[in-house]
Structures are given as C-alpha cells and as structure tokens.
Amino acid sequence: MKLKNVIKPKLEDIENIVAVDREVTSNNSRRGYIRKAVEEDRCIVVKNDNRIVGFLIFDTNFFNCSFISLIIVSPTARRKGYATSLIDYFVKIASTQKVFSSTNLSNKDMQKVFIANGFVQSGVVENLDEGDPEIIYFKSK
Questions:
Q1: Which residue intervals define the domain N-acetyltransferase in the entry (predicted)?
Q2: H helices of 1-141, where?
C-alpha cells in the first residue's frame, strides 16, 4: 500500500487535530491530551488535500515498549487506508522493536484494523470499561 501523507504536526495544527477528534467524540475533552502529545512529539497526522483527516498518539511507557494510545480517523475519511498509513509510519519510526495497542472488545472495526495490519492479540484487560474488556494487540518490527 502506498503511504499516504503522514507527518508530525506543528503546534498550529492542534485545533485541526481537535476538530477531527470532536467529529468522533462530539466534545473537546481530549484537547489538553492532544496538545501535550504534539508538544512532546508523540503525535503524527495523516492529511488528504492538505487537510488533517486522522491522527495517532503514542508513547513508550508500556513496559518500555512503544504503545499506540489513540488512533482517530474522521468518519468521512474511514475505509480509505488512513489508519493503515498512520500505523505503518509509526511502526517504522517506533523506538522499540515491539509495538502494542489496544481497543475495546466492542470495537470490532478497530480490531479488524489491527488484524489487517499484522497485529496479533496479546491479552485482555478487564475492569477498565465496565462490561467491555480491553484487548491488547502486538506487532514486532
């Protein structure tokens, strides 16, 4: 698959990233989280026609491994390869050999994205969201 326009955002991109997140969450509750990730160089974005259509936030605090904390793609831009482009780019730049992520058991679409991108299930965490276990996924570089 051809890598789409994935880049590291600038501080002036924060409002556009928050706007994409708001399309999914209907609020601005993660504005501070997004700002901090951009400031700490832990965010990448994917663009279409110079417009941010998705983003990925990561860290390396998961047992000293890279962890994709959040992937959001605008609902109108889904199923066009943007999540795959974000994941591919991140795996290439990840500072560790192992990359982990997670999603709720109820999020079947995200589970399909992980599987399609070579991730395998690596465990389950109960009690984060009541009645909706978190599935941990893993991929080696």
A1: 1-141
A2: 14-25, 31-39, 82-93, 108-116
Residue 81 sits in a domain whose CATH number is 3.40.630.30
Residue 3 has pLDDT above 90, yes or no: no
Judged by DSSP in three states, 110 sits in: helix
Residue 30: C-alpha distances to residues 18, 20, 26, 57, 106 (Å): 8, 11, 11, 12, 21
What's this model's pTM, rounded to 2 decimal places?
0.93
- Are 93 and 84 contacting, i.e. CB atoms less than 8 angstroms apart? no
Q: Collect all residues with Cβ–Cβ distance below 8 Å to 9 and sequence separation of at least 6.
A: 17, 38, 43, 44, 45, 52, 55
Q: In the chain, how many domains are there? A: 1
Enclosing H/E stretch for 5: strand 5-7
Structural domain containing residue 58: 5-140
Q: Name the strand (E) or helix (H) holding 80.
A: none
Is it the case that residue 16 has pLDDT exceeding 60? yes
